[in-house]
Each structure stands twice: as structure tokens, then as C-alpha cells.
Amino acid sequence: MSKKLMILGLIVAANTYGGQLDKNYTTKLNESVITTERYEETPVLEISKNVTVVTGEEIEERGYKNVEEALTMIPSLNLIEGEISIRGQVPKMGNRTVVILVDGVPQNGMDNRVADLDFIPIEQVEKIEVLPSGGAVMYGGNASAGVINIVTKDNPDKKYWGRVGTEIGSFKYRKFNGTVGTKITNRLSSSVDYSTSDKKGYRRGEKTDLDFVQASADYKLDAGNIGFKYSHNKRDGSGRANALSRKEYEQDKKSNKYIGRNSKDIQDKYILNFDKKLTSNLEASGVLEYREREYKYRYPDDKNRPGYLNRDKKTDSFYSNIQLKYNYGNKSNVIIGTDYSKAKVKEKSYGYDGDLKDPILYNKKNTDTNFYAIGGYILNKLSYDKFLFTQGVRVEKNVFDEDIDALKTYKKNKKNYFVKPLEHEYSHSKFSPTNTDYELTANYLLDKDKSVYVSFNSVKRSPTLTEYSGWDIKDSPTRKSQQLDTIELGTKALFDNIYLAAATFYIHGKNEIMYDPAKLNKGGSFYNLNGKTERKGIELISEQYFGNLTLRQNFTYMDNKLASGRYKGNKIPGVPWITAGAGATYEIIENLFLNADLKYTGKSYFANDFKNENGKASSHTLTDISLRYNMENGLSIYGGIDNLFGKKYYNYAYLSGNDIKYSPAPERTYYVGLDYKF
User: What whole-number distance in Å separates Cα of residue 200 and Cα of residue 225?
Assistant: First the structure.
């Protein structure tokens, strides 16, 4: 730990003068978000949430290579194998409680509700807005833990522009990206973006190839805009390794008995968005998206195969969101909106019976699922003197309609003939919950750079399609929507060269949807927790600006427990009590940036260990450093080291049956890159 602290100490010592205000102070004062009002920006000080903004400039200066890295220093946010958890949501379930937006369009697929951050090129990002416990009124119950809005860069106001870059790094990592655009007329512009990368994984047999291409066009209206985007995303490779037992983890962290697993994920998206000021006080906005997704994987048919061998899933989905905004006073407005989602999912799976050890047993299953959701909301923002009040309500109807045709094959004799005939099992189920969400906030502006706020929201989340299809009917005969009620009190302030933000929150949960990996091949692994939950937390954020040096810190403490039910009084497993971060960005000379980030993740009970009987997952501290030089001709050279001190750790550990399983994480890794803008 002393070595890690030394890194920051050396940077601080490199610049000893303070009290001088600079661009960082001005930027922080003027930071704004558009998550709450699709196109019009709202200053951070006027948001009644402990919102965090990471700008595109900060992404470059800090050496973040992808969206996941840009999120690592957000308070109360944990990333576990690419999945996001905010404010104590249990691992592997948190992604389903966070809506990830790109320019206001949800990226959570309706087939599995998990957004793939690798499909969002970091080069296109203008800024990232993170609103914990916010956004559910506008974006639905899947935002019960919050919203992450990724805003992409606008087309510049010039005839031609572009960008080209390349990166190489550890594990045979290679990346190439390019952008080219043109201003066709004074109103019409278009661009094409391309990115491709491939790398070996930390574990043996892991390999991932990513391809992304996007074509976009924007047409400026009088007091408005129309935009169209088409994107093609493809992930190909061996993207999953088995979790290891303690013995396997200690003997060889890179081992992988599922070598040979092949997976493909292909998505095509067509997006139309518009905004138009109809009168001086009235404006309309909307977004339409059609998405096609094909997901498949194959396991080799050998002794190391899991209980399932292959899976093919095709999804066609449509999403629309239309809203009207009426401005009736200074900083006062009302938003009325509606959204509609529709998805048709066809899935075929083939695998061995997980309850039986005979390698000749198998079952086939064809599943057709139709999903519909329609929601309506109203959000009012009232300004009175130095007070800002918001009131919001949302009503959402979800409909799940599922047909299953299961073919079960029984034991074969030595001549490979079936002892018992094939049997079909047909089933049909329908689930149609209606959820109502509420939000009330009050914000008091002490002056231009200080505010205090209080907020309350109540959010219900229905099971996703994946959860619905994999439900444990035995332990949870009735599928219920989970509910989270959150109260938050906080403040934000700028004094001279220091920015401070603090928040305390209380979250009361009911019927939370959980996941038990031990039940994966036994009919269903998702269920409603029988009991209530409580999460109490404190979040602290600070930044200090000293000329060319910026320092930043964050700290989160959460007391999480099961408030009732079978495990009353126990801690919520998989959720660390303490997380913290510290960072420094120093401009050594003009356009030469040195950055260091430290992230501490504290101890927790192993995920799924509701009894709290199997010890605790260990804590770990990671240190990343980077260096970037931006030349005047548009060329940039950069590089960095992740996990500088080669920390050996696991980023996910869970109880499966009677065993603890571990997912080891990479140790020290390196990267260098070139970037040219014109």
C-alpha cells in the first residue's frame, strides 16, 4: 500500500503551488447533464442526485481505453466481469437494475437486459453521466439503481474531419479505429466510424474479436435536429472461462477446462432520433430503434463440458420514446412522455441433464417468447426563488408470453439405442405485471456554486426475459416485481480550488430478484428473495485544482443487511462495505499528461452466501498509470500500465452449492497507442 501512496505523493510533490484557479475549476462549475431532460442540459448543482460526470477530455488525459475503465472511479459503482453494480446491488444482477443509454437510447437488450460496454467505442464518447438511484420515471423500472448516459460527440462544424488510431498491448491485444466525416450542406452532415480489436484472455483458451461499424447522418432543422444511425456490432471468440475452485485457483489461476467454447454475438441497430422546438415554450423529442440480435455459443463435446452444450438465440426488438416538454417559467417545465417496447425471442438449446452424471443423457428445448411493454410518465420541475422541486410518476405495463417445447432423450444402451422413447413436454405461461414508480426531490441553491438536496424515489422492476425464462418455480412459484425505495440527502459545493460532494442514502428493498448459479441446470436459477433488504450508505467526492495538477478522491461506505426473512440480520452477500479511489492528473509540460488512479475494493461475504458462513472475499487495491502527449499537428502518443504492482486477485467469487468459486483477474498489463485527429 505504501508504494501505491508514493505514486500519488510524487505527483503532488511535482507541483507545490496552490490557490490558482484554472480550466478544471471552470469546467466543474459548468458541468451539466442531459439524462433528466433528453436534449436540454441541466447544471450538476441543480440535480438532486450525487451525479458524476466524466468528460471526453478527462477520458483522454487519464488514459481510459474503454468505457469500463472510465467507470472505475465512480463512487458506489463496482464492475464485476463487465457487469455493473451501483449502490450495493448484488453481483451479476446489478446490470439489470442500471439502464445504460447512448444518446438517450437504452442499450440493455430486451432479450437479456445486459448491455455490452465493449460495443461502445471510447473514441466516440463526449462525456459519461452517472446518476445513482435516478432516472426510473423516464426510463422505467430497470433503472431502479440508476442511469448511465453516454453522450457521443457531435459532428464538428467543418467541411471534413476524421480520426485514426491504433493500440497494442499485453495478451496480444491489437486495436484499430477510424472515423471520417463531411459537412455535405449547411444543414446536412454524415460520418462513418469503424473499430476492430482482438486479444487473448488472461485465462487459457480465452480469445475475443470485436468489430464495430457505424454510419450516421444529421440534418439541422430550424430550432431542431433529425439524426439517423446504423451500427453493426460483432463479438466472436471464446468469451467465457469456468470459475475455479479454491484448489484450482491456488494451483493455476490461468487454467480453464472449457477451452474450445466458441461464441458469437451479432447486433444490427437502426436508430432515428429527433428534437424540435414547436413554439417558444413547447418542444418535442423522440427516438425510434429497431434491433436485430443473434447470439450463439458452442461447447466441445468432451468430459469437461458443462451441463449445457449449445445455445442459439435470435431477437427482433423495437423501442420508441416520445415526449413533450413545456417550459412555463425560469427553470420550470413539465415533461410528458410515453415509451413502447416489443421483442420476439426465439431460442434453441441443447445440453446434458445437469442433475444426472451420465454423459449420454441430453435434452433439447425450443422457446418462443413475446415481450411487450408500454409506459407513460409525467415529470414536473418547479423553480421558486432558490428552490427547485421535481415530482414524477410513471406507470408501466409489462407482458411476457412464453411457449416451451422440450424434447427429453433418455439413457442409451451399449448399442446406442434408446432404452426409453423420446418425450415431449409442452408448456405455456403468461405474466403481465403493472408497475408504478414515483420520484420527489427538493434542491436549495445556496449560491451559484453550492447546493443541498433531498430526494425520494420508489421503483418496481419486473423480471427480465432472461429471468422470466430461467425462473425457479419450485422456490418462487409466483414471479413478483422487486421494489426499491430510496431516500437520499446530499450537498455539492465549490470553494476556491476545491470541489466537494457528499451524499447519504437509505434503500429499502422488497422481493429482490436473485440468482443462484447452483440451480443453473436444475430448471431455474432466478427467484424472489423471501425477505426485505436495507442498504445504508455514505458517498464522498472531492477534487482539488492546483494549476496543472488535479487531485481527486472518492469514498463509499455501505451497511447492507437482510432486514427480514430466513436470513434476517445477515449481510447482503457479494457487496463490499467499503470502496475508495484516489487519482491525480498532472500536465508536466504543455499537452504532456501523467495520470495515476488507485481503486480499493473492500471485503464482502461471497456472493450467494446468504448464511454468511463461508468467510469473506478478500479486499484488493489496484493502481493504474498512464502517459499521453498531444502534439500540435493532431498526433497523440500514449501508453500505460494497468495493475502496476501486479496484484494477484479475483474480481468475483461466489458460493455454488457447498463450494466457493473464483474468477481470477489479470495481473500487470501494458499498452501503447497512436491517435491522429484532423
Answer: 42
